[in-house]
Amino acid sequence: MTDGRDAERAAAIAAADTTCPRCGAHRAPDQAYCLDCGLALPAVTGRIASLRRGWLRRFGWYPGDWIWGALLTLAVALACAAVSIAVSHRSASHGTSFTAPPPVTTTAPAAPTTTAPAGTTPTTTAPPPAPSPANGHLGWPADENGWTIVLVSYPKSGGRAAAVRTAETAASRRLQQVGVLDSSLYASLQPGYYVVFTGIYDTKADADADVATARQAGFAGAYSRQVSR
């Protein structure tokens, strides 16, 4: 199990260093822009690249180079909060007190009451729509054909639980429109599998553009596939 996980993370590191994160096109180490989609490519040398590889080696997925700026901002915010707390404690120890202003209470206006005229039927308010399934628990839209990115396929004989857990993991790694579908319901797929997918696309080109993102999230075997009945 460990060897398989290490191989998967090594593949994710290789994909991050040799492919465009937007379209998956091959890139050279010193290439500044993707020749296919024009994206400004992240550096594969230097401190940020080293941190990126370390993150992938440790967690198996990578949110993007923006994470380092976010972590620095968080560290500064925590330092400022610590200083603020220390100052407050010092003021309290010197007898300085602070009285919070009384809370402001607001009362929402009452909804107008409508009385139906005599001899008519009162209007019934429709119930709110049911909430949409959470990311990681989506199903393929009914009567809709399109393209998606297959992350992992599990034989149906083993049950659906493993596929659901993988879908939840993919959603936690910031992949979008993640769910599980039954391949036996679609003519374009090999029957007998629970397929963990991410994305619902109109064209193959749209799906192919996000394959590299799925691979960098730790799913090195991700590929685009048509879904049609």
Report the CATH C-level class of the domain at 146-227. Answer: Alpha Beta
CATH architecture of the domain at 146-227: 2-Layer Sandwich
CATH homologous superfamily identity of the domain at 146-227: Sporulation related repeat
The stretches of 5 or more residues where confidence is low (pLDDT under 50) are none
What's the total helix number?
6
Reported by name, the CATH topology of the domain at 146-227 is: Alpha-Beta Plaits
What structural category characterises the helix and strand content?
Answer: alpha+beta
Task: Give the helix level as a range of percent.
Answer: 25-40%
Query: What's the order of the H and E elements?
Result: HHHEHEEHHE
For the largest beta sheet, what order do the strands appear in spatially?
Answer: 2-3-1-4
Cα distance spanning the termini: 35 Å
Shape, please?
A: flat
What fraction of residues sit in β-strands? 5-15%
Q: How many beta-strand segments? A: 4
Q: What's the main sheet like?
A: 4 strands, antiparallel
Mean pLDDT: 84
Rg over CA atoms, rounded to whole Å, is 26 Å
Relevant terms:
229 residues, Alpha-Beta Plaits, four-stranded antiparallel β-sheet, 13% strand
Describe the structure.
- A 4-stranded antiparallel β-sheet has the order 2-3-1-4.
- Helix content is 36%, strand content 13%.
- It has a domain at 146-227: Sporulation related repeat (Alpha-Beta Plaits, 2-Layer Sandwich), CATH 3.30.70.1070.
- It has 229 residues and is an alpha+beta fold.
- Helix 1 runs antiparallel to helix 2 (47-59).
